[in-house]
Amino acid sequence: MAQAPTQEQVVDAARSLGREEFTREDVAEKLGAEVSEMRPSWKAAKDAGDFEKVRNEDGKRLFRLKTA
């Protein structure tokens, strides 16, 4: 990805994974970006309530999309 993904792109990528739970790495891979590149957009989406942290598993944080 030429530039950092937007908050909307991060949320859309998470949604398009088609899984209930996902990691930041899963979303970054879907976007073709590094986790560090999408960090500001990920934080904005989390702060906006788009994601919620579910649990830690083997050192990886798992998230899910919040439903309306």
Structural Rg: 11 Å
Q: In CATH, what is the homologous superfamily?
A: Winged helix-like DNA-binding domain superfamily/Winged helix DNA-binding domain
Strand order of the largest sheet: 1-2
Tally of structural domains? 1
CATH topology: Arc Repressor Mutant, subunit A
- Taking the alpha carbons of the first and last residues, their distance comes to 30 Å
Query: What proportion strand?
Result: 15-25%
Largest beta-sheet characterization: 2 strands, antiparallel
What is the structural class?
A: alpha+beta
Number of helices: 3
Shape: globular
- How much helix is in the residues? 40-55%
Series of H and E elements? HHHEE
- Beta strand count: 2
Low-confidence stretches: none
CATH architecture: Orthogonal Bundle
CATH class: Mainly Alpha
- Average pLDDT, rounded to a whole number, is 92
Summarize this entry quickly.
With 68 residues, this protein is an alpha+beta fold.
What are the SSEs and their pairings?
Elements: H1 7-16, H2 24-31, H3 35-47, E1 51-57, E2 60-65
Helix pairs in contact: 1-2, 1-3
Q: Can you put this structure into words, describing what you see?
A:
Helix 1 (7-16) packs across helix 2 and helix 1 (7-16) crosses helix 3. The mean pLDDT is 92. This protein starts with 6 loop residues before the first helix and ends with a strand. It has a two-stranded antiparallel sheet with strand order 1-2. The chain is globular. The chain is built from three helices and two strands; from the N terminus they run H-H-H-E-E. It is of the alpha+beta class. The chain has a single domain (7-65), classed as Arc Repressor Mutant, subunit A.
